[in-house]
Batch of 2 targets.
Target 1
Amino acid sequence: MAASYGARLYAIGDIHGRCDLLDDVLQQIAAQDAKNAGNPSEIIFLGDLIDRGPESAEVVERVVALRASGRSISVLLGNHEEVFLRILQGEANLLPMFIKIGGRETLFSYGITRHEYDTLSNEALAERIRELVPPTHLALLNDCDEMVFRGDYVFVHAGIRPGIPLAEQSENDLRWIRNPFLESNADHGRIIVHGHTVTEEAELRTNRIGIDTGAVYSGRLTVLGIDGTRRWLFESAAKPAAETARRSAA
């Protein structure tokens, strides 16, 4: 089991616009911290705060408020945030891709109307969303991490490229990789904690821990707790999304 790190950690998997699930696990974290004599802990968000679920703007606002409160948090840039951020930076041509992977719900959560969505050009829609996203949200997205190192653990969104030193990993792999990483049994030097790829249950391997349990559809937002050499998993108790929800491409 991994060596001790100096503070209790909580890694939160892909939220995808389910603020109800995030609020649930944050309450559980607060309760666990209270039982730990109030000792400080750190929360690491593994990325994909947005898209697919109905409350992307609300999720980002929760994370902004947590950071503003002085809470120790780290936020990884997921592939969904990458596409959204690039649109906010001027790449309106990415809107069709963004919508395909669940971005329509994000647009609506920030106040885009159905009429605007149906009638505006990509360029006009991108300009409108740039007007609606608060500066604090944009600042958070611009300040996300690519990797977080804590003790014997490395936290990333999607994974790493096996055989490449951690310091030399590409941002594209950190946010998008799947099979070369998921199928590898290699010793990466540290245990890689990641989201991005949905599994029915959290995966605890000798070289990686995956905690994306498809929260937006399953209603199960999974959290990994780490305290010294102890690890544990817990999840939200909220209900799954409505049956009318449909999966978007990853």
Target 2
Amino acid sequence: MNREKQIPISVLVIDDEPQILKLLKLILEAKGYRVFLASRGEEGILETAQRRPDIVILDLLLPDMNGTTVIQRIREWSQVPILVLSAIDQEKDKVQALDYGADDYLTKPFGEEELMARMRVLLRRLQPQDNLQVFRSDGLEVDLVNRRVFFHKKELRLTATEYGILRLLVRHAGKVLTHRQILQEVWGPRGMDQIHYLRVYMARLREKIGENSLQPKILLTEPGVGYRLMILDPEDGIK
């Protein structure tokens, strides 16, 4: 019996460290991914255009250009998920990469399981999203059609701004959103400097869903960068 062979998910790794390229190729191919490699920024941009990978893993320190330039160039014509994997751990560099269009940021040295988890979140973007209706995670339920929010079956009363923030985080569940991205989307250009307002609203959201503000599980703070809404159960997410 002939069976149609499933096309593997393709990954482009842009990094100038030979050992990292070799390691990622071994890890990803062992997981069934098809892997392409590039050691320079310009080469990575051309490979992205020609190979059309499903996801790009990008270092920020490249010999011919900064990784943020690569992100900007790719974002001119493609929305391919981009995961930054870099030894740079400065908050300003993380924020800049995310604001320029990266989808997530992981610092070297990295754990294999965390890398694969971050990739799974970003690859959900490849799935059709025409019928997004309900998001679920650890007792939190957001009905995107009827604009209703429940926590362990109890309906929560949210303000329009609180719901706007939560809806944005749900739409990008698992992905870190910078303060700038949230403020621009919810408050508009005039609210770009109102980070203190955002912190107040996030504290209110955590309180309403019963989160421990010191050890939150669902609404996580990425220090100096922004916030991330977690999907805690693999069976959960947007249905």
